[in-house]
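During the no-cost extension, the postdoctoral fellow (Dr. R.K.) reprocessed legacy sequence entries with the updated structure-token encoder. One reprocessed record is reproduced below for audit purposes.
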Amino acid sequence: MSTFSILGGRVIDPASWLDAITDVHVINEKIVAIGTPPPNFHPDAGRHIDARGLIVCPGLVDLSVRLREPGAEHKGTILSETRAAANNGITSICCPPDTNPVIDTPAVAELLRQRALNSGMAKVYPLAALTKNLQGMQLAEMNDLKEAGCIGVSNTLQPIENTEVLRHAMEYAANFDLTLFIHPKDPWLGRSGCMHEGEVSTRLGLTGIPEQAETIAIANHLFLIEMTGVRAHFCRLSTARAVEMIATAQTRGLPVTADVCAHQLFLTDHDIVDYNAQYRVYPPLRSVRDKQQLRAGILSQTVNAICSDHQPHEVDAKRVPFAMAAFGISALDTFLSLTLRFAEEMQIALPTVLNYVTHCPASILRIDAGQLAVGKVADICIFDPERRWKLQTETMHSCGTNSPFLEQEFKGQVIHTLINGKVVFSATHLQPK
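Re-encoded structure tokens follow.
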């Protein structure tokens, strides 16, 4: 039996709005008390975590992390990326199905979950492919994939051009009580584009992706959601108009939620200078107005969660012309700090902003995570909100070091991460009593 206490930290549980300087007591995997220890509580000799001056909150829940395994182990592995997540306070991650092979059979889903379990790091919750091999033609065996541990379905960035197939896919997902995770992308508009269509793309001579590539797809899906009743989550909104459309749908009572990735809250197409391929992402960095409306969407709770959209790459994937570069950012190391920076710039209370990276995404995934309460599993993030650090390639935890934020200074750093009551990362050692 493992017994210890986390002492004197500012304990924040967004799910219950607890925010107090207090202690957390853990036995084995579970939180057994907050505040006064329970009767007959005997901590292991010499073991406690001194959390004075630190924030103690639920482990972060990330809605989109590419693990690159199976199929692209030169970019990252389940072990490397779940460890990188844990080292950054992220205890639960959702993995899209666009691996190689695709997560469209129970065997692939079980392989991924078992390897993640063996890593002993961040917990992995895979999404299943909506259609076989993500080709948009034949429906995947959703019920079998659900039984294999998949918590939702998605066709990721592969649009389903046949509306009849999409309708039936939604009906099947609704029938099996699976959330549909939608990456809104028109199959034709901006198909050859590499950045946001606007004045910057014109000046740089790069083919653009218009905002309508996102909004037309959202409109199409919303009509079908109304028709089928499927529970849907819109992934990685990037435009102001998209936020307005989701807000209207929510007001009308449609069962839809949405998220935005952290870098979209700070970067715009105006940041793409010198054709720096580190800024090539999908959805593309949009206009200043779009960024402002994404921020406003979080404040209004139209946007329900913030994610990292972590996509690690080998160095050569970005050492090519902008239009040929792989899209994506290695984003685990900056996830918490960007969230805290957003809170500071927008003057949002810490419990409120932490809700968007703990309890809210856990609710979207419908998993038992993102809470710090008695009886819950002790998945805990402890961080110093004032500690400053610089993002450098040699200190990044992920295999991928592709980031437009390299050499920037950040505030807020993880000191300890606990998963199932075990310290899996510590910037310091457990202190003697």
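The chain has one domain: 59-365. Confidence is low (pLDDT under 50) at residues 429-433. The remaining legacy entries will be reprocessed before the final report is submitted.
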